[in-house]
Design goal:
The protein has helices at 133-143, 180-184, 189-195, and strands spanning 4-12, 15-23, 28-32, 35-39, 46-47, 59-60, 66-67, 69-81, 84-96, 111-119, 122-125, 149-150, 159-160, 173-175, 202-203. The longest helix is centred in the middle third of the chain and has 11 residues, at 133-143. The termini are far apart. It is mostly beta strands. The model has no long low-confidence stretch (mean pLDDT 89).
Length: 250
């Protein structure tokens, strides 16, 4: 896989520092305050155990992952529009809270992700309701002009999540570029499970490669996760006066 680097800022109670991130499409490498942190997702960035940071350099969960900070960076994002692939910029803002009291691994007590796509003089934002890259990028895709689409692994015809759920903020998307024909026939969860062992490994939602094809809107090839973006789920209005059930006093 082709690697790329992103630059941005890191903030915590000790101050603000320049941030450099690099990725090969599967694993993240982050350099902050002279230390290297690596992991497959932003909630699982761990310092190099061979060069541990001094106490107080970072806030870490009991499992040793970075938390208690804000990360901000830009990712170049190709956007297809009107027969041409344009270069847009995806601005990412991720806030990782401090370890949650009582959590088994001390996972962050709060997590906020905000994405904003700068494209063709306009700004398309994810809002504040999404807690992973898949949901945030889907919200941006819904706002793009008709016929325009993000060109990345998340919108690719050959990617899917494991049906039991990955639970990952970022990454964990399986690539089927080495089993294209088999995956093209997969139109539901059972069909994806039947070819799961033929995937080429995990990729990040924002990655892209020369094998990209746009994901179909319906039918075979939509796999377990369906089209991109998935239909927005609308809550049905409650008719009449709703009263919650009362406990029996009998």
């Amino acid at each position: 896989m082709t690697g790329e680097s992103w630059v941005g800022w890191y903030r915590d109670r000790a101050g603000t520092e320049a941030l450099t991130l690099s990725t090969d499409g599967r694993r993240l490498h982050v350099r902050i305050r002279g230390h290297e942190l690596t992991g497959e997702t932003f909630t699982g960035l761990f310092p190099d155990p061979e060069v541990p940071p001094d106490d107080g350099t970072f806030t870490l969960t009991p499992a040793g992952a970075l938390c208690g900070c804000v990360l901000e960076w830009d990712i170049p994002m190709p956007v297809y529009d009107d027969g041409t692939v344009h270069r847009a910029a995806l601005r990412c803002l991720l806030s990782l809270g401090r370890p949650a009291p009582g959590a088994p691994d001390g996972d962050p007590e709060r997590l906020h992700l905000g994405l904003a796509l700068h494209f063709d003089g306009a700004l398309f934002t994810s809002g504040h309701a999404e807690n992973d890259f898949a949901g945030a990028l889907a919200e941006i895709q819904r706002q793009l002009p008709e016929g325009s689409y993000l060109k990345s692994c998340l919108s690719c015809a050959f990617s899917d999540y494991y049906p039991a759920g990955s639970g990952a903020l970022f990454g964990g998307l399986a690539c089927f570029r080495d089993a294209k024909d088999a995956y093209r026939e997969a139109g539901d969860t059972d069909a994806v499970l039947a070819v799961w062992d033929r995937n080429s490994g995990s990729v990040q939602e924002t990655h892209r490669c020369p094998d990209f094809e746009r994901r179909p809107a319906e039918g075979p090839g939509t796999g377990h996760r369906g089209p991109f973006p998935p239909p927005r789920v609308e809550l049905l209005p409650v008719q009449g006066d709703f009263k919650p059930p009362q406990a029996s006093t009998a």
